[in-house]
Amino acid sequence: MNTIEIRGIKWFFKDEGLIGFLRGFSPEEGVKRGHFVFEHAGKKIFIKYFKEKGLYGLVRNRVSPRGKKEFQLAGKLISLSIPTPEPLGYGISDAGSYVIQEWIDGDTFVSLYEGSGQKAALLLRLADFLNELKLHHIRHNDLHLNNIVAHKDRLYLVDLHKMKIKGVFSLSDEISNLAHAITMVYQNLNEEEKRAFFQQYGERAIRKPLEAELKRLRHRWILKKMERAFDDTSTMTKDGNYVYIAGFEGYGKGTLCSVIKEDKKVKIERHGDHVRKIYRNKRRLNKAWKNHVALTYLNLRVVPQAFFVKRPSLTEKGFIAMEDLAGRGEELDRYLDREYDRFGMHERRIFIDTFSAFFVHAIKQWIIHGDVKACNVFVLRNGGFILLDVEDIVFTEMDMESLKRMLTQLNTTVPKRISTGDRIRFFLKLSIPLKMKNKTLFREVVAGSLKSKIVYEGVSGLSVEQW
Questions:
Q1: Which of 234, 304, 341, 434 is deepest in the core (most CB within 10 A)?
Q2: Domain at 372, CATH number
Q3: At residue 57, does pLDDT exceed 50?
């Protein structure tokens, strides 16, 4: 290994040809960007910076710098014939460490998977790759699908600094790799795809403990994202009492046009380029913003796009600025009151099927709305649906009681003239994919619905009907 110290960074590297570049490398740029790519000897080179914070980070940087660790682990993987970017060197400074690697010009597995028409084949490749890691006792500890890169029909393992090559590979190690790897796609797999994956992996019995771990990981992941909802992160930008969703810093500047709604919980204002939801209760504001942030991380478009939150002060209430849906559709109860009688049988079936599919997808992503009245579902004119009152969302598995409550709320907040056949079709299209006990659930929804009047906001205003 060659060594050289330049501007407070001690570099260790294989190729002397790197010296010229390292002399021109700016540590400040590395700190700001975290990583970057440059050309060297006809190929791309990647430098990643590990910034250390606090006492723990200072000690870790002295004892086991992450840049050095990644360099060493990459060398071990290559010796085991596990594809990973070639390690070229590392650097150590007082504030952190660097690793120099070959740049793999490929796609992350998740982006390739989401954009592919051959998802089944990709799942089998993933199963084989995970089996190879098991064979060599490799526990990655952060094996999400962005840390697997596909290039020229090969899968490369990246981001290695948490990885361990273990003498004994336990069931816990195996489940850790599997759970981290497939948590991003598992909930959207059908039963046939799941069976094929485990058959290819060669260990069908592991499915049950794996699914338990997937639930635990998802719950923990969502909680972590919500805990950082008011911090400066890669997804949010903090500016005083304001926290912006990254990319929306210039939105929500319009002046007040009108007040849409005002009650003891919220005041909703329409501004020139956004809707402003002002919360009288700080707890509800925090809950709503945390939900917006979690859904942003999940990349799920099921609620209005939030631009920013303004935290409350001693003199002002807090609010969330979000997109204005005016002119793009209307609430479900109004929509059905206006359009239902115009629909033919085919149009009704298409609407019911797309509406139920929207809820099935949301529920499988652990998005449960605690107040699913028809007025809290917005029907987009160009297709699709949006859930309103984001503060009422919880991230958990759907159970029988919650589904019964949801179906009863919907059943009693749409016009009475919605036919029994259409109501049953929606019930079946929703409950069958969720594998609920249909007969029991149906009886309880009917009984619960008959205890209430039908109350909805129609085209002509509030309507109250008897069954």
A1: 304
A2: 1.10.510
A3: yes
CA distance linking residue 134 with residue 165, whole number of Å: 10
pLDDT of residue 35: 67
Instruction: Name the phi and psi angles at 271, rounded to 5.
Output: -105, 175
pLDDT, tens only, 200-250 = 999 889 999 999 999 898 899 899 999 999 998 878 999 999 999 999 999
Same domain, 89 and 120: no
Residue 109 falls within a domain, yes or no? Answer: no
pLDDT for residue 20: 84
Are the C-beta atoms of 253 and 321 separated by less than 8 Å? Answer: no
Q: Is the pLDDT of residue 32 over 50?
A: no
First-last CA distance in the chain: 82
Looking at the structure, tell me whether residues 300 and 361 fall in a common domain. Answer: no
Please report whether residue 108 resides in a domain: no
What is the tens place of the pLDDT at every residue in 92-101? Answer: 999 899 999 9
CB atoms within 10 A of CB 281: 15
Q: Which two tokens stand for residue 413?
A: 């907040």
Map tokens 């009863």 to a residue.
408
55-59, 347-351, 389-393, 461-465: segment of lowest average pLDDT = 55-59
- State the average pLDDT for the chain: 92
Domain boundary (322, 342, 370) is at 322
User: Domain boundary at 53, 74, 102, which?
Assistant: 102
In which element (H, E) is residue 266 found? strand 266-271
In this prediction, residue 362 carries a pLDDT of 94
**Three-state DSSP class for 122?**
helix
Q: Which residue has the tokens 């990647």?
A: 46
Q: Percent helix, strand and coil across the chain, each rounded to 5?
A: 45, 25, 30
Of 216, 214, 196, 206, nearest to 127 by C-alpha is 196
In 93-195, which ranges are E strands?
A: 96-102, 107-108, 138-139, 148-151, 154-157, 164-165
Across the beta sheet with 148-151, the strand order is: 107-108, 148-151, 154-157
| Side chain identity, residue 440 | T
Contacts of 345 by beta carbon, 8 Å cutoff, 6+ apart? none
DSSP code, position 205: G
Which is more confident, 20 or 262?
262
Other C-beta atoms lying within 10 Å of the C-beta of residue 256: 10
